[in-house]
Write a structure and sequence with these properties.
- 26% of the residues lie in helices and 38% in strands.
- The protein has 433 residues and is of the alpha+beta class.
- The protein has 2 domains: 290 residues, no CATH class; 92 residues, no CATH class.
- The strands form 4 sheets. Strands 9, 15, 16, 17, 18, 19, 20, 21 and 22 form a 9-stranded mixed beta sheet that branches. A 6-stranded mixed beta sheet has the order 1-6-2-3-11-12. A 6-stranded mixed beta sheet has the order 5-4-24-23-27-14.
- The longest helix has 17 residues.
């Protein structure tokens, strides 16, 4: 039988949760001639206050054929064939006669990331181990960070009190285990997933709210979850590729991490001096320059190129606690450098990424990128949408903004970075004449 492949983008900008759920499913399903083989669903957090996410999912399942594999969750925004949005819901529906699909879930991702990753990966493996299709892909979607509320302080990204900072750093591990709050540990989950499924090409993303880091949700079939990792596995004869690019450039500002803390998540000293004052000195910023209000509008442009298990890991500083810099992943000590990035650099990274797929005639694409890029580019985000539209033309694509992202392939190993642009392209390899 001749292969048939159909894809569709679902979209809703309605305010009420159940109405939006119905519409995002209807606008996708009506474009397909047969039921979808999988349904990826992303939504902004505002539906929590307009009916709730269980009602949102109920609306989706009012329309979506029962049993359709579905995963997804909350994100700060998304981009598709119709534009870029920071409110609403979008879906990617794919139907194919030559594709095997599996979904997996692992719970308590902050408390025990390795167990959650293992459970999720085993579900994918068991469902696809006998597939006849040669190319395997995985979307690894993980519950993002939740900033703990500190008594007398609240949920802050910049804590100036030395006593409170010391307490918070010491309590980080306990907070993750007991309350499942804190860092999302997506780097650990991603690495464990790669160990379990080394033959899969992967794209990583994390669930988030509207930048606040208060709560995020994951969708798994009809279930509404928190603190979970959900996976979509696809086996197909389509050619596919994944790749990560970023626009961050090295500077001549280098320093040596001489003391780590908080299970290697905190830079406590650089050049044998308290980390934050020394960081400010290197950037020639005065004391007090960074505040809760101004931090995101300045520090975004100066990521740090850290090291993790021999790999470069460019990250944006998410939290500062008095004299310590908290980073989103487990890192190594030693010499690192400060990077710089501009809006034009970020746009150029998108172009560079898509050029790598010039030999693939795309059928559809899934993309993850850092939520800080949405903040950094502002209205210039439309330029990225135009670049994607030019590449995909009338083919479906869905990009979701994330709080931690990356890709994996055997050729390029694990790439994990903030402020990055990550693609998974499905299509047909063009034969060279």
């Amino acid at each position: 039988m001749k292969e048939t492949l159909e894809t569709a983008i679902g979209m809703s900008r309605k305010w009420e949760a159940r109405d939006a759920g119905r519409e995002v499913a209807e606008t996708a399903i009506q474009k397909l001639n047969r039921p979808p083989d999988f349904f990826l669903l992303f939504s902004t957090i505002h539906y929590e206050k307009y009916g709730g996410f269980q009602e949102f999912l109920n609306g989706v399942w009012d329309v979506l054929p029962k049993g359709t594999p579905l995963i997804g969750g909350t994100v700060p925004g998304f981009m598709n064939n119709y534009g870029c949005f920071s409110r609403g819901a979008s879906a990617l529906a794919v139907s194919s006669t030559d594709m095997d699909v599996a979904v997996g879930v692992g719970k308590n991702s902050k408390r025990n990331p390795f167990r959650a990753a293992k459970q999720c990966a085993e579900m994918i493996h068991n469902q696809l181990k006998d597939t006849p299709y040669k190319n395997k892909f995985l979307l690894n979607f993980i519950s993002g960070p939740v900033i703990p509320s500190i008594p007398g302080v609240g949920q802050k990204k910049y804590i100036r009190s030395g006593f409170v900072s010391k307490f918070a750093l010491q309590a980080l591990g306990l907070s993750q285990k007991l309350m499942q709050k804190g860092l999302s540990r997506e780097d650990e989950i991603f690495e464990k997933t790669v160990q379990q499924l080394p033959d899969y090409q992967m794209i990583l993303g994390t669930s988030m709210d509207d930048y606040k880091g208060i709560k995020n949700y994951q969708f798994f079939n009809e279930q509404l979850l928190t603190n979970a990792v959900v996976n979509l596995g696809v086996a197909t004869d389509l050619d596919l590729g994944v790749h990560t690019t970023h626009g961050m450039k090295p500077t001549d500002l280098h320093f040596t991490i001489t003391k780590l803390g908080a299970q290697r998540h905190a830079i406590c000293k650089i050049n044998n001096k308290p980390a934050v004052p020394e960081f400010l000195r290197l950037l020639d910023w005065p004391e007090g320059f960074l505040t809760e209000e101004t931090m995101l509008h300045t520090i975004l442009y100066y990521p740090i190129s850290l090291r993790r298990q021999g790999r470069d890991v460019p990250v944006v500083t998410p939290l500062i606690m008095k004299d310590s810099i908290l980073v989103p992943c487990v890192i190594d000590d030693g010499e690192v450098s400060i990077l710089t990035v501009s809006g034009q650099d970020l746009i150029q990274a998108v172009r560079e990424n898509l050029r790598l797929f010039n030999d693939i005639q795309p059928e559809f694409g899934l993309l993850s990128t850092c939520m800080t890029i949405l903040q950094t580019l502002g209205h210039k985000t439309n330029i990225i949408q135009e670049e994607l539209h030019s590449y995909f033309k009338d083919k479906s694509f869905l990009l979701f903004y994330s709080a931690g992202e990356g890709t994996y392939s055997k050729d390029n190993d694990i790439t994990y970075a903030n402020m990055s642009f990550n693609t998974a392209i499905f299509g047909k390899q063009e034969t060279k004449k």
